[in-house]
Amino acid sequence: MKNAIIIGASSGIGRELALQLTAMNYRLGVTARREDLLKKLEAALNKDSFTQKMDITDTENAITVFSEIAGKLGTVDLVIISAGTGYIDTRMPWENDRQTIDVNVRGFTAIANTAYKLFKEQGHGHLAGISSVAAVRGGATAAYNASKAYVSSYLTGLRAKAAKEKLSLTVSDIRPGLVDTAMAQGEGLFWVAPVPKAAKQIIQSIERKKRVAYITKRWRLIALLLRILPERIYNRLA
User: DSSP character for 16?
Assistant: First the structure.
């Protein structure tokens, strides 16, 4: 039985990952901010798994909670950071940008940093961060795109650091396109993946130890297009 920690699993992709990993006989330590939803999820997990409330924006407490969960599990084989947020609001209220940065940058970094050090001490482990296709290039949802670019860059940095330190550590940058969750906002959406399909492909990518994985796979084509489009054209689409 493998042990995994999932950060941000009360709904959406994180919740489905917990359910699918449970079916694969993982022992899980699962966190989220919304305790009521966590308790509902806990009832669907195997008897050796457990949930614990965590507000990732309270970084010091989040680090403490993460360490407590790791202690309960004993050995941690996999950490998935699925917590994330984003907003579409043409008024660009500062509160939205601040919350995006607090969750996607500060909170993510606190857990990724702590997980890396845990795996270094253990001598092995796999860290998977849920980034986004939006990481490829800045867009009209400026704070969200920038925060996901940070996530991808930080994971690349950890991978380089692990290689330099010759650690048995895998770091996966998971970049979903549109998935049928509350995060999929706006008009004219296309290629919106069902949550179970997205979670299945994420787990497959983790099992194959992918460094970068686009979910679903065809979003790799969109990522390539986003990189090469001239800015005058891109700005009309972003």
Answer: H
- Residue 53 φ/ψ, nearest 5 degrees: -65, 140
Q: Are 33 and 11 in contact (CB under 8 A)?
A: no
- Which residues 6+ apart lie within 8 Å of 164 measured at CB? none
Report the C-alpha gap between 196 and 220 in whole angstroms: 19
Q: Is the pLDDT of residue 188 over 60?
A: no
- Is-contact 44 92, C-beta < 8 A? no
From residue 180, how far is each of 66, 68, 99, 154 by CA, in Å? 28, 32, 22, 26
pLDDT, mean of residues 142-148: 97
Mention every residue, 6+ apart, whose C-beta is less than 8 A from residue 74: 3
Q: Could you give the CA distance from residue 64 to residue 214 in angstroms, rounded to a whole number?
A: 31
Apex 174 CA angle, 172 and 179, nearest 5? 160
For the whole model, what pTM was predicted?
A: 0.93
Neighbour count for residue 94 (Cβ, 10 Å): 8
Distance CA 231, CA 58 (A): 37
